[in-house]
Amino acid sequence: MMKKSTRRVATSHLNGLISGLIVTCAAATSALAQESACKPSKIDLGDGKFIESNCESLKIAFLTAATNNTHLQAGIKGAQDAAKEIGATLDVFDPNWSPTVQYNQAQNVISSGKYNAIVAEMNDGNQACKILTEDAPKAGVLVAVANLPLCNRASNEGDELWSPGTLNFVGGSQGREAFRSWIMSIAEANPGPQKVAVLTGPDLNANTINTELALKDVQEKYPDFKVSAVVKTDYSVLQGNQKTLPLFQANPDLTIFISNYSDMTRGAVQAARQVGLNHKMKIYDNGGNIWSFQAVREGLIDSTRTLLPYTEMYEAVKALGQAWKGEKTPRFVPLAAYNIDKETVAKYEPQY
After folding, report:
1. Full domain range(s) for residue 291
2. How many beta carbons lie within 10 A of that of residue 238, not counting itself?
3. Exposed, middle or buried: residue 67 (CB in 10 Å: 0-12, 13-18, 19+)?
4. Pairing state between β 339-340 and 303-306
5. pTM of the model
6. Residues 191 and 211 in one domain
7. Is 40 exposed, middle or buried (0-12, 13-18, 19+ CB in 10 A)?
8. Where is this gene product found (predicted)?
9. pLDDT tens digit string along 23-40?
10. Nearest to 307 by CA among 143, 129, 178
11. In this predicted model, what pLDDT tens digit does every residue of 210-231 receive, in sequence order?
12. Residues 146 and 208 in one domain
C-alpha cells in the first residue's frame, strides 16, 4: 500500500507534467496561430515596383535631415513613439545637414541588411532619388518620405509630391504653393513699396527651394514687394543671429523680414534688437514653435505659421506599419498649417 506522502509526491509530479504539457501546447498553438495569421503581401510602390512584406518585425532607419533644432527633435520623438506603437525598432541617423554624409548613410543602411524600412527626410532629394526609389526596393527596403520630397518633386503639389518606388510622401505644408500662399498674404497685407529680407535654410533643401520659388511668384504679382536679400542658414538660432546682424546693420530701411523657420527667427529677433530695428520692421515667421507663440503674444513678431513635425514623422512610421501588414495607404498624407497672430494665438497649441 502506497503511503500518503508518496501519493502526494506522485500526484504533485503528475500535475506538474500536465501543467507543463498545457503550457507547451499553448505556446505551440500561439506560435501556429501567429504563423497562420502572418500572410506576406505585396506592397505596391507604383511604376510596377513591389516589395513583399514578411513576418519579421519592422526595423526602421530614420534618415533625419539633422538633429540640431527643436523641430527635428520633435520629429524624432514622433517617429520613436509611432515605432513603439507598431512594435518596430527605429535607429536615427544624423548627417548634420550634409547631403553627402546622408547619401552615404542611405547606402550603408540599404546594403547592411539590418533594416527593412526607411523614413527619409533627405537634405538633397534629387541626389537621393535613385538610391531610395530604385536601390532600396530592389533590396527589399520599404521607404516612406516625409517633409522633403525626392526626385525633383519639391515644387509639386498633392500626389505629385510622392515618388514612385517609395510608399508615400507625408508633408506639403512647406511646398511651393504653401509658401506662395503664405508670402502672398504678407504682400497683400502690406501694400505699396516694401524692402524685404528673407532668411531660409541650407542650399538644396526642398523648403529653401520652395521659399525662393514662392518669392519669385509673389514679386511677379506685387512688383513693389522688393526682396533685397535672401540669406541661407543651417536653421539654428546661432546662425539666425550671426547672419542677420550684418544684414540689419547694412539695411536699416528694411520694412519686412521673413524667416521660414522659428529657431533662426529667434536669433534674428535678437539681432534686430541689437541694432534697434525690432519695432521698425514687421517680422513674419514660419514654424509655430513654443518660442514663436510667445513672441506673438509679446509683440516681438507679427505672426507665425504652424508646422507639425511630430505628426509628420509619426504618420510616416505608422504608414510603414500599416503597409507592412498589408493595409492600403494613401500616396500623399497632407499636413495642415495655421496662421498665428494676436487674434488667433489663444486658439492653438504649438507642437514643439
Report:
1. 176-306
2. 13
3. middle
4. antiparallel
5. 0.84
6. yes
7. exposed
8. Cell envelope
9. 333 433 433 344 445 678
10. 178
11. 999 999 999 999 999 999 999 9
12. no
